[in-house]
Amino acid sequence: MPSSSSTFNFKQLPQAFLIFLAVIVALDLLDLFVLPLNTFTFRVWESLSVHTYTADFPGPFYPNQNISMTEVGDLAPHSPLAVKKQVQWQTDRFGYRDRDDPINDYDIVIVGDSFTAGTSLTQADCLTEVLQKKLGLHIYGYATRTVKQFLEDERFKNHYPKVVIWEISERSLGRWPIVEETSPPTKNSLPFNSIFQIWDSKYWLRSRIDHHSKKAWIGYCVSTGAQLTASLSQALENFFKRSNSKSPSDILFSGQPLTTGSLTEKNLHDIVTSLILPLNQELNKKHIQLILLPIPDKLTIYAGKHPSKNGSDFLNRLTPILKQQNVNVVDVKKAFDNAYQKNNIYPYQPDDSHWNPDGIKITAELIARELAEIEPKTPKK
Questions:
Q1: pTM (2 decimals)?
Q2: Helix ranges, the chain (H)
Q3: Taking CA 96 as the corner, what is the angle to CA 93 and CA 101, rounded to the nearest 5 degrees?
Q4: Helix (H) or strand (E) run with residue 86 in it
Q5: How far apart, in whole angstroms, are the C-alpha atoms of residue 71 and residue 87?
Q6: How far apart are CA 163 and CA 147, in angstroms?
């Protein structure tokens, strides 16, 4: 007869399950009400991005936030290739990554995507901050949003800026109309939102509820387990094979370059005539000067380090067409090429698909030059 010590006690199963369930519930409640928003995320971007209840928030991020953390890039967050950086984020009362300034009349509004929002950068290194300090003007970063959304925003209608800088990534521009500039985001709202609006004016509770809907702690546990498994596997491989692994490339990429053949002259013509020129005309009617700021893909600039060895010539072909149509455009591609090839300056983060402070400085200088050139023809209000 087997001893009692070797017999599995099924009575312990419910108790163990209840303990496990209690831990899960406790962790969930802590995530909802107590822990900082960035506890289970590798970047502030994931911590502050509005996720589910988009109709309850005026902007893309939770309003009135100030977070500092050590974060890593978006290309290898849970790997030895991740590069740690100390960043600080601040959002205003509208949910944009700007200092909460009472000013409503801006000289320049930069409408853009994650490059303008400054993912992977600390607040002081963002394009709006650097450009504002350089020019001494009031500049607002309206990201991540589109020009159409800017024109529909009530808070700008009575005091439009003199200049709108439209920053858009090469990949988004090259994929138009697949990436449709005018498509509105899907909007969902919390139940009893009218009650929240009365007593949750600072968006504290609504931010916590929306953040909780991401279930970031689950993803964190899964990714941590995967990271530990990968590290153990590599350690065992090195132990048994006695081999020294070659160091991986110090530059990481996302996806493949834009295929040159897919962007025909007709594609370029359509992008100019159906997207850019109508927006330019619409802004001019409101006495606003448009400056187009296309940001080249990381692998367009570092083509020689990419396995395909192929870079995109999309912006090289698009920029002259825009200039012929009298569209103000900043040639970031040419400036980044010169910085990288001639001066050995790397304008992008090594472990992220976005630019670094060097890329920001180069771009700010280009914008300052462009503004100086268009100033004489800027319409008077």
A1: 0.84
A2: 12-33, 44-48, 114-117, 127-135, 147-152, 154-157, 170-174, 193-199, 204-212, 216-241, 265-270, 277-285, 298-301, 314-324, 332-343, 357-374
A3: 50
A4: strand 85-90
A5: 7
A6: 12
Count helices and strands (H / E) in the chain.
Answer: 16, 7
Best CA proximity match to 123, nearest among 84, 102, 97: 97
Residue position matching structure tokens 């609504």: 206
Interior angle at CA 180, CA 362 and CA 94, nearest 5? 65
- Angle (nearest 5°) at CA 69 between 67 and 71: 125
Sign of the CA dihedral 59, 63, 67, 69?
negative
CA distance 33 to 25: 12
* Beta carbons within 8 Å of 312's beta carbon, 6+ residues apart: 170, 174, 257, 258, 260, 296, 297, 300
Taking CA atoms, 266 is separated from 269, 273, 310, in Å, by: 5, 10, 22
Tally of CB atoms within 10 A around 29: 12
8 A C-beta contact, residue 87 and residue 69:
yes
Residues paired with residue 68 on neighbouring β-strands, in sequence order: 88
| Tens place of pLDDT per residue across the chain (381 aa) | 445 555 555 555 677 778 878 888 888 888 888 899 998 888 999 999 998 888 888 999 999 999 999 999 888 777 778 899 999 999 999 999 999 988 888 999 999 999 999 999 999 999 999 999 999 999 999 998 999 999 999 999 989 999 999 999 998 887 776 444 444 455 666 665 666 666 677 888 889 988 888 887 777 776 666 666 655 665 555 555 544 443 345 676 766 555 544 567 778 888 999 999 999 999 999 999 999 999 999 989 998 886 666 778 889 999 999 999 999 999 999 999 999 999 999 999 999 999 999 999 999 999 999 999 987 555 544
